[in-house]
Amino acid sequence: MLFEFAVRRPRWRVVPALAAGLLLAASAAAAGYPAKPITLVVPFPAGGSVDAVARMLGAQLGKRLQAQVVVENVPGAGGVISTQRVARAAPDGHTLLFATPNHTINPAIVKNLSFDTEKDFAPIGLVAQVPELLVASGGQPFDDFPGFVDYARRHPGKLTYGSAGNGTLPHVTMELLLLKLGLDVVHVPYKGAAPALNDLLGGQIALKMDTITTSQPHFAGGRIKPLAVASLKRSPLLPNVPTIAESGLPGYEGILWLGVLAPAGTPAAVIDTLHRAVEETGRDPAWVRQLEAAGVEPRTTSPQAFGTMIAAEIAQWKDVVRRARITAN
Fold first, then answer.
1. Distance from the Cα of residue 103 to its chain's centroid
2. CB-based contacts of 260, cutoff 8 Å, min separation 6
3. Which of 247, 270, 291 is the last residue in one of the domains?
4. Which residues contact 5 (CB under 8 A, 6 or more apart)?
5. How does pLDDT run across 234-253, given as a tens digit for each residue?
6. How far out from the chain centre does Cα 290 lie?
7. Distance between CA 50 and CA 127 in Å, rounded?
8. Does some domain include residue 106?
9. Alpha-carbon gap, residue 116 to 114, rounded angstroms
10. How far apart are CA 145 and CA 63, in angstroms?
């Protein structure tokens, strides 16, 4: 027993020393970061709402990290090109991806991706979200979510809904809703959200998953009816409009989330530095006001929670795509 105690005792002393060494190494890795301008890659063209939030975030991160943050717009292939660009970048925290739900939808609809959506990226955290809003054209014979569900059940295949195209977020979130409710509503894909909204206003389609900022201006004239918000909590912009979750589908959520990812292998200390900067931004009252004025809700998470959400969404969209027989074209 004495020999056994003598062997084990040095191990107890080594563990704290090893931990201290790791902490020193991590601190050293973070101390020199950032060493050059940070590139924030956005998978959409300049000028849209996602690009606007990315540029606002870039300014905030630049201020907190004392570095230049350059927004690089790399549109194309539903976000695949920009995602591939970041997956192949050096894992040093100087090239980041401003990710959206395309990141979790693409594995379900795009064949032979050149990267692994989970393994090739290190989550930093969510930044904000834009809840979707289920809206109906003004001429529909229902004014709320229960009315829509009742009418669709009694008239299978009669109602239509528009989206910005196959595999887009409004498409898959609407199909998720229809699958959960067991409803038959016909999908009409468009080449973008704007033409779909125009046909909704004209009564050519009955329904659409839209955003509050684009549909709200048409509420007063009765050309669009808000039925339900697709976030877990009611939107402060539409406090009297219930959520889909509280209208009979607990847990249902359809949001355009915005988050930051780094290439896999980025040092943990750098991830932590970036996450702290994102968290500090999320607590800044000026940032919150800036987002809310644009119809965007601030939302931050830990890297671990963001990673868990990504994994859950990948599985969810693969199931929806399979059951709804969604294709990329």
1. 8
2. 40, 57, 96, 97, 98, 99, 124, 125, 127, 274, 278
3. 247
4. none
5. 998 899 999 999 999 999 99
6. 19
7. 11
8. yes
9. 7
10. 44
